[in-house]
Amino acid sequence: MVAPRRPVAGLIALLAGALLAASCGLSDVRSGVVADRSAPIVADQVGGPDASDDFTPAEPDPGEAQVDDPVTDTPLVPDDAMGEEQLDIPDIDPADIDPNAIDFGSAKPERDYDDFLLASLADIERWLQAEFEPAFGLPYEPLQGGVYAGYPGRTDIPGCGEPTTDYELLQLAVAFYCPAGDFIAYDDGDLSLLTELASQFGPATIGIVLAHEYGHALQQRSGALRLNLPTVATEQQADCISGAWASRAAAGLAPGVPFTDTDVRAGLISMIRVQDPVGADPTAPGGHGSGFDRVGAFQTGFNQGLGRCAQLIDDPLPLTPLAFLSGDDQINQGNAPFGFGQDQLFSFLLPDLNAYWDEEVDSLFPNFQPLTAVAVSSLDEIECDEPRGYAIFGAELCSATDTVFIIEPILREVYDAQGDFGPGFLLGVVWAEHAQISNGSQATGEARQLRNDCLVGAWVDTLIPDPTTGQLPQPRAQDRGSSVSPGDLTEAILTAIVIGDRDSDSDVLGSAFEKVDEFRRGALNGIDACM
To answer: Which of 276, 310, 344 is the last residue before a domain boundary?
Structure first.
């Protein structure tokens, strides 16, 4: 998000550098292979919370609008975004394993997730035997060249244009599919990104990566790889295919592949970890898209299945801009300074939120009253008889007095860990809640919280500049003077993932998947999608 228009504008918000992986596919290094390091996306709009027509403008009734479930003390800055949990890799039934599914070579370090991957690949082949032809209209041909695990010292992996694959090249690619030999290779070395992801988030992350590479194998079979499409188009489809398989596993339809809500959450995080660098052009050769887009393609496959993925070559998902639009934008890497001073984060973020709700959508929320922000350094400084329970988000809402208490230490921690649109998303939730209260919304519990996520997305929708002109959407109630920067959308969904319920049965704030889905729905379709 950029500050008010000046000769040189400063931006707000990007995903923290610590959560970005260098995005350099093997296809950038040597022709003939398709690597997995990044891929574009944009999720479909799946239906939102079930609170059908409680949005009719009405005199606010704070008693009726109370949220049933309190906002919980979910940590906003967890270790490695999720790695504070103890990972438990269950034993796999040998009957569900195809021991020949992966060529491990003679000296591969044994991993506790090897059996999980063997079961995953066996199921992917079984799944495609059943569903590829109905989706793509062609009979499925199994992978002919196999799957290879690479590690230091291994020299017998087939090459793609060369006699063999150098391990250093595989390290750079992380994983790739070779159309010439119809094989897949992945880096299983101690320092591999995949090994790191599996250690932090569980083996499902590698299963998703391998399903993505199978997506490229399907493109070879369908002819998509021979169409000279932009890299981002084929990567988008491959991410969708990985999401379709993850949905099958999450539904318990993949024998020997335990796949929980935690694994779905890990899949979303892994999509973000391999996004294009902020400032890159996703449509350039080798481009794959933002984390926001990658997660969206994954969710499209998860929600709509392999048949929708098959359509993406002719009917691609939209892409969000990643390129910097000003010199300051590039210098600051999209991060506005934290604070309330001129051109600092809160000096334009808070007025913009008020302007959006009070002026831009005033016909839908006629009783909305702008919030007055009060900065505090501790919870003891908050003076509110009826707090809404959002202090853990760093901004306690006191709708009775139209006041929001900005708890600087909490938001500073989020800012430092995740970038400056981490606080932007959390404050957006608080303003959305205030809007619901003003409108007399009767939604409660998880449905209410998910509506807030969608409404935050609707606010952001008005701040996304055209990727070619840099102009904001028109018409506008007024020139509010802010816009999102490259990476802001990814940072928002990361924050949604971090604060979401750890499983889909908690029904407090909504699961990570549900929260991201709702935010994307609002950001891509505007406020009407949230009503």
So the answer is: 310
